[in-house]
Amino acid sequence: MTSHSVLVNRAPVLTLWGTIVAERLGHPRGTSLTLGKAVAGLNAQSKGRRLGIFEPAEARPAGKKAAKPRPARESIELLGRAVPVVHTPDGIRALAKDTPESPESVERYLSQKFGPALAEVEAAMRLLARAYPPKRLAVIGFELYERFRPVVPEGTRGWGAKGRLDLDTIRALADEA
Fold it and tell me: In terms of DSSP bridges, do strands 162-166 and 5-9 run parallel, antiparallel, or are they unpaired?
């Protein structure tokens, strides 16, 4: 282990952590990758609305017909988020804007964002996930993320900013379990 920290944005950190937690909860790798990416996207949307970067969904103007209702969707709970999912021939996939996420594109995203540090970061996160029984991890997974996520400036200054992901902190959290 040569590195102890990685300079990275929070979104790929949450994507990878969500993937690892989903796998620990029993989901196959392809499903887990899409769930992790969807959780990071849902968190980004919420934060963006809170910071005023994204506009909240507009209310339908008076007198306009309601859109045809969508069929009821399934969802999977992960890191405190209800992630909409769909069954595909390749398995369950999280939805992003009504389109199933691609596990392969999530793998490429993680590889691009973490670069050569991906294997070491993933190993540290897996160590932490294995330190807890799945039922407990399902409850405290997001709290753990909040304890190790990279520190970035508050408010809009921190939007998209990179911070240091300390792998020793992740390993120490596993030791505390």
Answer: antiparallel
Domain residue ranges of the chain, discontinuous segments joined by +? 5-52+74-176
Q: How many residues does the chain have?
A: 177
pLDDT at 76: 96
SS3 49: helix
Task: For residue 101, give the amino acid letter.
Answer: E
H or E element in which residue 124 lies: helix 118-130
Could you tell me which residues come within 8 angstroms of residue 103 by beta carbon, excluding any fewer than 6 positions away? Answer: 29, 30, 31, 33, 34, 93
pLDDT digits (tens, 9 = 90+) for 132-165: 999 999 999 999 999 999 988 676 556 678 999 9
The DSSP secondary-structure symbol of 52 reads T
First-to-last CA distance in the chain?
Answer: 22
Q: Which two tokens stand for residue 172?
A: 């120490």
Whole-model pTM: value is 0.84
The Cα–Cα gap between 79 and 14 comes to 10
Paired tokens of 52: 């005023």
Amino acid at 166: D
- C-beta atoms surrounding 159 within 10 Å: 15
Per-residue pLDDT of 19-77, as tens digits, reads 999 999 999 999 999 999 999 998 866 654 454 555 555 443 454 444 444 545 799 99
